[in-house]
Write a structure and sequence with these properties.
The protein is of the alpha/beta class and about 150 residues long. It has a domain at about 20-115. The protein contains four helices and six strands. The chain has helices at about 20-30, 45-55, 120-130, 135-140, and strands at about 40, 60, 75, 80, 90-100, 100-110. The strands form two sheets. A four-stranded mixed β-sheet has the order 1-2-4-3, covered by helices on one side. The longest helix is centred in the N-terminal third of the chain and has 13 residues, at about 20-30. The chain starts with 18 loop residues before the first helix and ends in a 14-residue tail after the last helix.
Length: about 150
């Protein structure tokens, strides 16, 4: 988006929905023998739903950006769209039965991630600590104070 990615930060990049480019990639994958085409997207659910309706040959779209957590896949034509929410709150599990270059059957679960019930990996926790440690004073500095409640989604 222009706010999150101003042009001066990414001067040689452009962002947008490129249906023709996606169509070419899908066709190339299929002609190369792909039994399944899975698109990992960060366009948002509404945009990806429209993309699925306009570009045939995509079997699954793993959609993000809109932070939706879908309790079941949404089917648009022959394309399944799944979304796992945001901030690691959920994990989507999609098991596919693939036959004759397409999805014959599937099962899906949206699994809540309960951070308090998961033991952190000790090596990864040590790595995170070592990276944060030099910055703790800055990260803990009080920048402002408010007398009213601030809300964050």
């Amino acid at each position: 988006t222009p706010i999150a990615n101003p042009r001066w930060m990414v001067p040689n990049w452009s962002f947008g929905i490129r249906e023709e480019a996606v169509r070419r990639q899908v066709d190339e994958a299929r002609s190369g023998g792909a039994d399944l085409v899975v698109l990992l997207s960060h366009n948002g659910f509404d945009v990806d739903r429209k993309l699925a309706s306009r570009v045939p040959g995509i079997d699954v779209i793993l959609t993000a950006h809109s932070h939706d957590a879908l309790p079941f896949p949404i089917k648009v034509g022959k394309t399944l769209l799944i979304a796992s929410g945001s901030h690691g709150k959920f994990l989507s599990r999609l098991d596919l039965e693939v036959r004759e270059r397409g999805i014959a059957d599937y099962s899906y679960a949206l699994i809540p991630v309960l951070a308090d019930a998961i033991e952190p990996d000790p090596d990864m926790a040590a790595l995170v600590r070592s990276i944060r440690e030099p910055h703790e004073a800055m990260l803990g500095a009080e920048l402002a104070r408010t007398e009213s409640l601030l809300y964050r989604r």
